[in-house]
Amino acid sequence: MGAKQMGAVLVIAVVLIAVGVYFIIRPATQVAVTELDETDQAISDLEDYLDFENQDLISGVDDLYMDW
Amino acid sequence: MNTKIMALAMVALMLTVAVPATGAQEVSWSSRRATWLSRNADFNTARSEWLSAVAGFQRARSAWITDRSGANWSDLQTKARAAAAEAKDMMLKYLEQLKSSVQATRGLSENEKAPLVAELDNYIATIQGYSFETSEDTGLKATARAMWDYWKSIRVRVKYISARLMVAAAEVVLWRGQAFAAMLEAKIQQLKDNGIDTTQLDTWLASFDSKLELAQQRIENAKIKVEEITDNVTFAEIFRIVALHVRTAVSYLKEAFRDLKNIIVDMRTRYGSVTITGSGTLVAQGSGSAYLQGTGLVKITAMENSVLIVSSNANVSTTGTGTKTTLDNGDVQYTGYGSAKIRGHEIWVSITGNNIKLYAHGRGTATLTGTGWYRTFGENRYENRAWTGATATIESGEVQG
User: Fold this and answer.
1) B364 to chain A, minimum CA–CA distance in Å?
2) Residues from chain B contacting residue A49 (CB–CB below 8 Å)
3) What are phi and psi of B157, to 5 degrees?
4) Three-class SS state of B360
5) pLDDT, tens only, B373-387
6) B residues 51-70 near A, CB within 8 Å?
7) What CA–CA distance (Å, rounded) separates B378 from B360?
8) Secondary structure class of B374 (helix, strand, coil)
9) Inter-chain CB proximity B144 and A58 less than 8 Å
10) Which residue numbers in chain A have pLDDT < 70?
11) Do residues B208 and B147 lie in contact, with contact meaning Cβ atoms separated by under 8 Å?
C-alpha cells in the first residue's frame, strides 16, 4: 500500500471515529435540549406578552376632540 | 472500487446525521405563532405612527393657539384628521393582534376560541365604521369622541380576553411540564423495580414538582382574578394583579424547567434512553366513571365516596384513611381515601363515584362517562369536553367521537 492510500485510509478512519463520537454524545446533549425547546419558546413568548400588555398602549385619543 | 464504496458509505452516514436535525416540526402552531408575531409588529408600527401623528396634531394646535391664522386652522384640521385616522388604525391593529393571539394560543380549545374571535371581529367591524373623511371640525371631533367612547366601552372585555390568554399560556407550560415529569416518574419507577437506587432522582423530581406546584397555585389565583375583570373602574388594577400572578408563575416554571433539563441529561447519561416526548396531560372533574390506561402518572385529588381499582402492576400512594383490597384477579381496590397517586408502565386505573378530580400525565387513553368536564393538553390538540364516554388520547390530546 502506497503512502497516498495510507493517508486516505487514515483520513477516512478519523472521519468515521468523529461521526461515531458524535452519535455517542448526541443523546445526552442535543435531544435533552430540543425536546424542551417548545416549552422554552412558550415561556419566552409569555414573558414578551406580559411585557407588551403591561404598557398603557392605547391612550390619549381623547386629546383629539378636546380643547381646539 | 473500494474507494467508491467507502465514499458512498460516508455520504450515507452524513445524511443519517443531517436528516434528524432538519426534520419537519408541526406546522400549524408555528404558523399561527408567526401570524401573531407579524400582527404584533403591525401594531407596534401603527402605534409609532399614531404617536408621531398626535405629536404633529399637538404642534399644529399650539401654532393655532399662538396665531389664529387661516393657514394654521387648516393645518390643525388636517393634522387632527390624520391623528384620528392613525388612532383608528392603532385600535384596529391592537384588536387584530389580540385576535391572532387568541388563535395562536394552545391553552384554549377551539370551541372556547370561536366566541372570543367572533367578539373581536365585531369590535373590529364597529371601529372600521368610523370615518374621518369629513371636512368639518365639529364632525371630526364628534366622530373621534364616539370612537373613543366605544373603545372605553369595550376595553374591559379586551383586557379580560388578554388576561385569559396569559393564564391559558401559563397553564399550557405547566401541564406540558407535568406530562414530561410523568414520563420520568414512570422511568424512575421502572429503575426502582429493577433494584436501582433512585434516591437522587426522587429528590430532584420532588424539587421539580414543588416548583410546578407553586406555579400552579399562582395560575389558579390568576384564574380566579380574571373572572373579576368586569367593570370599567377596577379592571386595570385587577389586570395588573393577574399579570403579577402569571409573572410569578412564569419564574417558578423557568426554575422547574431548568431542573427538568438537568434531570433528563443526568438520567440519559446514567441509564441511556429516556423518552419524554409523546406525552400529554388530561385534567378532569365530574361524577361518573373514568377509565385510564397507559404509562405515566394519574393523580386523583378528590375521590371520596369513590371506588378506585388499579392494575396489579401499578404503584399507588394514598392519603387519608380507607380500605385497600386485593381482588381475586390481582387488581387492587381502594375505597375511602382522600387522594391517590398511581404511576407505572402500561397500567390501568378505573374510578367510579362522585365529585372526582383527576390529572393524568403521560401517554395512554382516558374514557370518562357521566357528568363533568375534562381538558386535554396534548402535543396536537387542546380539547375541552364533557364526560360523554368518548375516548381521549392523552399524549396527542385528540378525542375520538
Assistant:
1) 19
2) 101, 165-166, 169
3) -65, -40
4) strand
5) 999 999 888 899 999
6) 54, 57-58, 61, 64
7) 11
8) strand
9) no
10) 1, 20-33
11) no
A 4-33 → B contacts, CB under 8 A: 8, 12, 15-16, 19, 22-23, 27-29, 31-33
Which tens digits make up the pLDDT trace of B251-262?
999 999 998 988
Separation CA B207–CA B255 (nearest Å) = 10
Q: Provide the ipTM.
A: 0.82
- Cell digits for B133? 373623511
**CB proximity B229 to A under 8 Å:** no
Q: What is residue B170's predicted lDDT score, i.e. its pLDDT? A: 96
Q: Cell digits for B356?
A: 372526582
CA distance linking residue B271 with residue B335, whole number of Å: 37
The position carrying cell 393564564 is B167
Give dist(CA A18, CA B179) in Å, integer.
35
Are B40 and A35 an interchain contact pair (Cβ–Cβ within 8 Å)? no
Asked if residues B115 and B121 have their Cβ atoms less than 8 Å apart, the reply is no
For residue A3, the model assigns a pLDDT of 78
Unique residue bearing C-alpha cell 357521566: B370
List of chain A residues whose C-beta atoms are within 8 Å of the C-beta of residue B90: 58
Q: Give the number of other Cβ atoms within 10 Å of residue B19's Cβ.
A: 9
B residues 151-210 lying closer than 8 A (beta carbon) to A: 151, 155, 162, 165-166, 169-170, 172-173, 176-177, 180
Closest CA to B229 of B165, B317, B134: B165
CB contact under 8 A, B47 and A57: yes
DSSP designation for B379: S
* Alpha helices by DSSP H, B194-304: 199-226, 235-271
Dihedrals φ, ψ of B75, to 5°?
-65, -40
Residues 310-369 of B with CB under 8 A from A: none
* A64 DSSP 8-state letter: G
Q: Which residues of chain B have pLDDT under 50?
A: 1, 8-27
pLDDT (0 to 100) of residue B361: 95
Whole-Å CA distances, B157 to B104, B149, B236 = 19, 14, 11
Integer Cα distance of B373 and B395 in angstroms: 18
